[in-house]
């Protein structure tokens, strides 16, 4: 089993569970953006965007920096990588399990 000592996978998956936060992650994948740039495509208040950013930051998915009065956000890749690794581990398990079942069915059909 994979270990993730530096990443709280529960927080990462919880953060990714909201469509607005997933959209923000997609925006940040294109590069660093200001809070107002992140808020622009969403039909929510700046306060709501700030709350979403806090959840993403608490999960380690983004880093905020201040440039004067402007807050800039950048994507942090490690938590996403760790979540992906966890998912892949179980994808392999299920692929192997389903392959074993298919082979058993084929053997039963040939008997």
Description of the structure:
- With 111 residues, this protein is of the alpha+beta class.
- It has one domain (9-110): Winged helix-like DNA-binding domain superfamily/Winged helix DNA-binding domain (Arc Repressor Mutant, subunit A, Orthogonal Bundle), CATH 1.10.10.
- It is 64% helix and 13% strand.
- It contains five helices and three strands; from the N terminus they run ααβααββα.
- The protein has helices at residues 9-16, 19-29, 35-39, 46-58, 77-110; strands at 33-34, 62-67, 70-75.
- It has a three-stranded antiparallel sheet.
- A hairpin with a 2-residue loop joins strand 2 (62-67) and strand 3 (70-75).
- Helix 1 (9-16) runs antiparallel to helix 4 (46-58).
- 16% of the residues are buried.
- The mean pLDDT is 91.
Brief characterization of the structure:
With about 110 residues, the protein is of the alpha+beta class. About 65% of the residues lie in helices and about 15% in strands.
From the alpha-carbon coordinates, what is the Rg to the nearest angstrom? 20 Å
Estimated helix fraction: 55-70%
Low-confidence stretches: none
Number of domains: 1
Count of individual beta strands: 3
The CATH architecture can be named as: Orthogonal Bundle
**Overall pLDDT metric:** 91
Structural class: alpha+beta
Strand order of the largest sheet: 1-3-2
- CATH class (first level) name: Mainly Alpha
Number of helices: 5
């Amino acid at each position: 089993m994979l270990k993730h000592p530096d990443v709280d996978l529960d927080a990462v998956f919880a953060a990714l569970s909201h469509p607005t936060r997933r959209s923000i992650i997609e925006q940040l994948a294109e590069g660093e953006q200001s809070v107002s740039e992140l808020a622009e495509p969403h039909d929510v208040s700046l306060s709501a965007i700030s709350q979403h950013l806090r959840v993403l930051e608490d999960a380690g998915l983004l880093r905020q920096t201040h440039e004067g009065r402007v807050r800039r956000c950048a994507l942090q890749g490690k938590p996403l990588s760790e979540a992906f690794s966890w998912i892949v581990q179980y994808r392999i398990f299920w692929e192997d399990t389903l392959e074993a079942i298919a082979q058993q069915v084929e053997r039963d059909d040939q008997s």
